[in-house]
Amino acid sequence: MNKNVFKRNELLAQKVIKGLESRNMSGYYAASKEEALKLALELIPQGCSVTMGGGESVHAIGLPDTLKQGNYHFIDRDAYEDKRAAMLLAYDADVFLSSTNAMTEDGVLVNIDGNSNRVSAIAQGPKKVIFIVGMNKVCSDVDGAMKRARNVAAPINAQRFGLNTPCSKTGSCMNCKSPDTICCQFLVTRYSRHKDRIHVILVNDSLGF
Fold first, then answer.
1. Confidence at residue 143, expressed as pLDDT on a 0 to 100 scale
2. What average pLDDT is seen over the chain?
3. Is 198 within 8 Å of 27 (Cβ atoms)?
4. Single pTM value for the model
5. Residue bearing the bigger pLDDT, 59 or 4
């Protein structure tokens, strides 16, 4: 990576971390995927229950595979025939892993969900939520973050899942009410009432969508 981009990301990450701290959330900066994996494991106690709600960025740093091989109770919903049962287990998990569709420079997280299992677990349930976030997800403000979530993350995910939505064909949000829409619930996390619950690891890389 260009050293100027690296420095820019490092400086921006410090701004984001300060914003998170002002919102009763914890932020960390990882210079690489490997460092992000190390930080995440430091936040996850041995023997605890861990699950996740999708999250390409989480997979990108190799966290699920590492947890499956270690001393953790990893709840892998892909291994469950009853997906709903697996999703419900997330609300009582010790740790929930996720990425975010977008976030602001002052620490606000913006997420859109179709089934809403991910945004509901972020909001309430698991004792700890750990976000893995590439610096490509950071936007200047909530309006920019919402636009990114709707016009970048949503169309790509709709295409990835083979959904019949207008955005999967046009590449941008059409504010649809399609039966396949994945923009059912919008969650803006601006503050955490519970200290030490939400942790955001910012990664000096372009991760996820």
1. 98
2. 96
3. no
4. 0.95
5. 59
Report pLDDT for 83: 86
β-strand 26-30 against 49-52: which pairing, if any? unpaired
Task: Tell me the CA distances in angstroms from 53 to 22, 32, 119, 172, one per residue in order.
Answer: 26, 23, 9, 23
* Residues linked to residue 138 through DSSP beta bridges, in sequence order: 103
Whole-number Å distance between alpha carbons of 146 and 2: 28
At 167-191, the pLDDT tens digits run 999 999 999 999 999 999 999 999 9
> Checking phi first, is residue 164 left (phi over 0); if not, alpha (psi -120 to 50) or beta?
beta
Provide long-range contacts, Cβ within 8 A and 24+ apart, for 119-123. Answer: 119/185, 119/186, 119/187, 120/91, 120/185, 121/53, 121/90, 121/91, 121/96, 122/96, 122/98, 122/187, 122/189, 123/187, 123/189
3-class SS shares of the chain: helix, strand, coil, % to 5:
45, 20, 35
Helices (H), 125-203: 142-148, 154-160, 166-170
Secondary structure E strands in the chain: 26-30, 49-52, 73-74, 95-98, 102-104, 109-113, 128-134, 138-139, 185-189, 198-203
pLDDT at site 1: 66
In this prediction, residues 103-118 reach a mean pLDDT of 96
Question: What is the rounded distance in angstroms from the CA atom of residue 46 to the CA atom of residue 71?
Answer: 6
Percent of the chain at pLDDT exceeding 70? 100
The domains found in the chain, sorted by start residue, are: 3-203 (3.40.50.10420)
